[in-house]
Design a protein that fits this description.
A hairpin with a 4-residue loop joins strand 14 and strand 15. 39% of the residues lie in helices and 19% in strands. The mean pLDDT is 94.
């Protein structure tokens, strides 16, 4: 039985160029409760925008007719509602029960499952090990010259596209004496109103589980008087920390290391504040707490930021497809940002993005800024820079690796 008044859930919507030169729209679930991807035309998308919970099938039919002067058969609307229900794209009791079950299972589990195994990287240990070895084998420079590494910035881009960039950063970490790696990832989904969220779970990878530093998390919470494990549901399918865990397990197959997985929330609400992020009490408290934690660990903890740079093109809200000239300009823009990062200049990095009103959608802003403030006074070195261009959407994501 179809929903009487169908209501569409919030979905990721982006244009796709077809091989015949036409255009389509792709819909995906940003929360990961459904793995489906639905390709539709613009007329179907318009019909779906009418599914806001206030109209029944007759109302959708009438309003579509009013807007387009085209009468859609009732059966076609019913079929579409059925497909959206099957894909879990509609809000309703069935979806809410499905969501509750998944969230409860995650919260009660001691180990976070590998959400992207078999899609962004191989699923078996043997295949994954060979896959990653290929990236490290291709490196021309094997280690950081001074042998002392306190932190790295690596991408969180799909490993299949940016593997060599990851490897250039993680090769420098191999000689680190740190036994705890604090990973600062980007929260692409919701972690609630918190600026940061720590996941107190071990992380599963095809190469084995990488344990969470429970004692370290307790020390951080005790020092701050804040429970940063709130919002941990945002870690369930988040890739920005998971991909770092995969590289760490590969890099240290025998050595016992632990992680403290952190997601950093958006700084979008700070764009109109001239005083900068450190005037936000929660950001300042987190930074100061982590700086003190690293000092207490005395070289036995290192910092990792899993951060991408610009996201540009129609997939990310821009009106025009990217050209080769745009990609050249993008590199110039990114290298300007990276210069601030190399200098350890968190405020300069933030202000440059603030000045452009986030026009480049730098999703790594919160974790790179936090990384730089925790590493205050540390200097970095650019190791690699790359861009992933996606022809179907004529859009691009840029990324880089740096060592500190």
């Amino acid at each position: 039985m179809i929903q009487e008044h169908p209501k569409l859930r919030p979905l990721m919507v982006f244009p796709i160029s077809q091989p015949d030169g036409g255009a389509a729209i792709c819909l995906r679930d940003p929360e990961g409760f459904s793995d489906a991807a639905l390709m539709i035309n613009h007329a179907t998308y318009l019909m779906m925008t009418l599914m806001d919970g206030t109209r029944d099938v007759s109302g959708i039919q009438a309003d579509f007719m009013r807007q387009t002067q085209v009468m859609i058969p009732r059966e076609q609307i019913v079929d579409l509602i059925g497909k959206l229900h099957q894909y879990l794209f509609l809000d309703g009791e069935g979806f809410r029960l499905h969501r509750k079950r998944i969230e409860e299972d995650f919260l009660h589990a001691s180990v976070r499952p590998a959400a992207h195994s078999g899609t962004a990287y191989p699923q078996t240990a043997e295949e994954l090990s060979g896959f990653l070895t290929g990236f490290f084998s291709a490196l021309k420079e094997s280690a950081h010259p001074d042998g002392t590494v306190s932190g790295i910035i690596a991408p969180h881009m799909d490993i299949r596209e940016a593997g060599s960039c990851y490897a250039s950063a993680y090769a420098r970490l191999k000689g680190s004496a740190a036994s705890t790696m604090i990973i600062l990832g980007t929260a692409h989904g919701s972690i609630g109103e918190n600026r940061y969220s720590i996941c107190p779970k071990d992380f599963e990878t095809p190469l084995g589980v990488i344990p969470c530093d429970q004692e370290g998390i307790e020390q951080i919470h005790d020092a701050a008087g804040v429970d940063w494990t709130q919002g941990q549901l945002g870690h369930r399918i988040e890739h920005s920390v998971e991909f770092q865990a995969v590289f760490l397990r590969y890099l240290f197959p025998e050595r016992e290391i632990k992680i403290i997985p952190v997601l950093c929330n958006s700084f979008a609400d700070l764009m109109d504040r001239p005083e900068g992020p450190m005037y936000d009490d929660s950001i300042r408290l987190f930074v100061e707490t982590l700086k003190a934690f690293l000092a207490r660990r005395n070289g036995k903890a290192a910092l990792i930021a899993g951060a991408d740079l610009s996201h540009v093109g129609p997939k990310f809200g821009d009106s025009m497809p990217l050209t080769e000239t745009d990609l050249v300009s993008l590199k110039t823009h990114d290298l300007s940002l990276i210069r601030h990062v190399e200098e350890g200049d968190a405020e300069g990095f933030f202000k440059e993005i603030q000045k452009e009103r986030e026009s480049h959608n730098v999703c790594g802003l919160p974790n790179i800024y936090t990384f730089l403030k925790i590493m205050e006074g540390g200097k970095g070195r650019l190791l690699d820079y790359g861009q992933f261009f996606e022809p179907p959407t004529s859009s691009a994501v840029s990324y880089a690796s740096l060592v500190f």
